[in-house]
Amino acid sequence: MPAPIRLRELIRTIRTARTQAEEREMIQKECAAIRSSFREEDNTYRCRNVAKLLYMHMLGYPAHFGQLECLKLIASQKFTDKRIGYLGAMLLLDERQDVHLLMTNCIKNDLNHSTQYVQGLALCTLGCMGSSEMCRDLAGEVEKLLKTSNSYLRKKAALCAVHVIRKVPELMEMFLPATKNLLSEKNHGVLHTSVVLLTEMCERSPDMLTHFRKLVPQLVRILKNLIMSGYSPEHDVSGISDPFLQVRILRLLRILGKSDDDSSEAMNDILAQVATNTETSKNVGNAILYETVLTIMDIKSESGLRVLAINILGRFLLNNDKNIRYVALTSLLKTVQTDHNAVQRHRSTIVDCLKDLDVSIKRRAMELSFALVNGNNIRGMMKELLYFLDSCDPDFKADCASGVFLAAEKYAPSKRWHIDTIMRVLTTAGSYVRDDSVPNLIQLITNSVEMHAYTVQRLYKALLDDISQQPLVQVASWCIGEYGDLLVSGQCEEEEPIQVTEDEVLDVLEGLLVSNLSAPVTRGYSLTAIMKLSTRFSSVNRIKKVVSIYGSSIDVELQQRAVEYNALFKKYDHMRPALLERMPIMEKTATNGPTEIVQTNGETESSALDSKHPPSITQPTNQANDLLDLLGGNDVPVIQTALPTKPASAGGELLDLLGDLSLSGIPPMTAYNKNGLKIEFTFERSNPNPNISVITIHASNSTEADMTDFVFQAAVPKTFQLQLLSPSSNIVPALNQGSVTQVIRVLNPQKQQLRMRIKLTYTLKGAPVQDLAEVNNFPPQSWQ
C-alpha cells in the first residue's frame, strides 16, 4: 500500500477546492483511505492519519471513527505518538462516551512516567476531559505532582486539580496540604495556577474561604513585589509586570475580603498603591485598574478608597475605547446606590455619554442618568434627558419616557413643572409612551386642582399642533371633556389665556372622531369628551347630532357609547347633569384580601381601592377568630402590646421633638419583638378620607447578621380593607444599623376596633425563618 500523503499536502489540496462539494469529495476520499489504513493496523502511519483526521474534525467533518486509534497512540512508547494521541483524545472524546474510561490506566502510568513532558501531556488531558470517575481514580497522582519541586509539572498539576475539584468537590480537602507552599514559589506560572486553584476552592467552600483568609498578607506581599519590581523581560507586558497574575490576585483578594473587616483592612493599602501607580495609557493597565475597582467595591474598604475607585471609573468614561466606557458605566450603575454622592461628581461626564454613537453606551448612560436624579438636580437632569428624548433612536424612547415620568413624579419641585415636563414628553415622544401612562397622567391632572385651567389650555394648544400622538390626544380629550368650561371662560392665571369658543372646541373633538390618525380608543375618548361638554356648553343640539350619528358606527365600542349617550338625552335627561359632573379626586388604594398588582412603567403599584363605596358586611359574632385566615391557622400567639405612656404636663402637651411621640397625636406601638426582630407601628390619618388609617411599620434587627429576603404580610377582618405598599428594602441590617419601612393603609368605614394578623418571613444566616402573630391592642386613636 502506498504511503499516505502528509498533513501539509492534505491542507494544501483542500485549500485548492473551489466549491464546498469539491472539498467534501476530497475529504471523503481521504477518510476512506484513512479507514483502510486503520483496518490494516498500519502502525507506521497511524500518527500521520490521526493528525489528518483531527484537521478534518476542525473543519467540521465527522471523525469519531478515529477514537480508538487515539487510545492506541496513547499506549505507544514514542513521545510523538503520545502527543498526537492525547491531542486527539482531548478533541474527539468527552465524558459522555464510555471509550474515555479505557484511557484511565494509560494516564495513570504516564502520570508516573520518568519524562516530565509525558507527565505534562497526561495532566493536560485529565484536566481537559476527565470525567468524575477518572478524577476520583487519579486524584492521588495529581496531588503527588502538586507537591513536586518541578515547576513545569506543578503549574499543570494545579490546573488539573481545579478540574478535579469542579468534577468531584468532596476531593477538595485532599489538595489542602499541597496548597501550603504554593504561594512561596518564585515561578510566575506556578503562582498564577496556584491562585486559580485557591480561588476555585474559596468559591466552592465557606470553610476553605475562612481557612485561606490567613494568606491575605502573603498575597498582598506578592502583589506589592509585582508593582514595585523593575523591568523583567520575561514577564513584562506593555511596561507592566505580569498583569495576568496581578488580575488573578486581585480577584482572589476580592473573594477573601468580602464581608471580613480584618482581611479588608490588610489589603486597603496595597489596593490604593495599585490604583495610584498603575499606568493608564495602555489597555493592560486599564484591565488591572478595573479589577482593582471591583475589589475595592466588594470588600469593606475605607470611604476614601471607594471615592478613588469611582474616580478611576470617571476617568474611564473619558477614554476613547468604547469597551472601557461601557465597562465604566456598568460598574457605576452597580455602585450608584451605595456611593451616590461620589458618582454624582461625574454627572456631567455621564450625561455626555448620552451623545455617544454607540447604542450600548447610550443605553447604559441613560439608565445611570435616571439613577442619579434627585431633588437637587431634577431640573438640570430632566433638561438633558428631555433633549436626549428628542434626538434618540425609537428603541430608547419608551424607556426614556417612562423614566422621565417616574423621576418627575418622585422629585417634581412643583405641580406646574411636573405638568410641563409631562406635556413635553407627550408632544415629543407621545407615540412611544406605555399604555398605562395615560390613566396615570389623568390621575395626576385630576389631583392638581389649581392647575386644571392651565393644563387644559396647554393640552388644547398641543392638540391644534399635532394629533398624531395618540396618548397626547387621549389625555387632551379627557381634560377638555372635564374642564372645557375653564378653557372657554379663559380663567388661566399661570399664563396668558387664549380666546376659544365652544364651537372651536367641538370642531377639534369632531375632527378627532373622523381623523384617520385616531385609534379606536382615542375616538372613544373624544366621543365621551363631547358628551361631557353637553353639561358645560350651551351647544347641546349640536352635541346631540354628533352623538346620534355614531349610533350606527361600524366600531362596536363607539356605537355602544353613542347609543347609551342617546338614551341619556331621551329617557334620562334629568339625570344627565349628575352623571356627567366632574370626576372627583382619584386616590390609589387597594381592595381587601390579596393585593392586586398593576405594572406601571416598570414598577409595581397596588391597584385602586374604591373608598367611596365600602362593602357593608355585618360583624361576625365570634370576636376571636374573625380575622381572614390568609396567613395560616388559628394557633397564633396574640401579642398584647404595651402602649408608651407620657406624664401629663400642665402647660398644654408640647411636642417633645427629640422623643418618640407621633406627630399625628397617635402614640406608636411595638407590634412584634422576637428573635432579634422588632416591628414598630406608627400612625397617621389620611387627610382626604378620615376612615383611612395610615400605618408605617419600622422593622429593625438587633442580631449580628443581616436578615435577608424579609417579607411582611398582614390580614384584617372582612369589615376592613387593607393595602400593603412596597417596602423600602428586603434586607433588615444587623445591629440596628438601619430599618425597613413599609406603609399599610386600612379602610375602617364602621369605626370598629382594629385587629390584625401578621406573617413574617426572612432568612437569617442562611436559614429560613417564618412566624405568625396577632396584634389586637391598637391605640383607640388609630381606629376611632
From TrEMBL:
SUPFAM superfamilies per the UniProt record, alphabetical: ARM repeat, Clathrin adaptor appendage domain
Keyword vocabulary terms for this entry: Cytoplasmic vesicle, Golgi apparatus, Membrane, Protein transport, Transport
Cell location: Cytoplasmic vesicle membrane; Endomembrane system; Golgi apparatus
GO CC annotations on file: AP-1 adaptor complex
Phosphoprotein listed as a keyword: no
Record-level GO BP terms: intracellular protein transport; vesicle-mediated transport
Superkingdom, natural source: Eukaryota
Topological category with respect to the lipid bilayer: Peripheral membrane protein
GAE domain segment(s): 664-779
SMART domains with a match to the protein in the record: Alpha_adaptinC2
Homology family: Belongs to the adaptor complexes large subunit family.
Protein known as: AP-1 complex subunit gamma
Organism the protein comes from: Astyanax mexicanus (Blind cave fish)
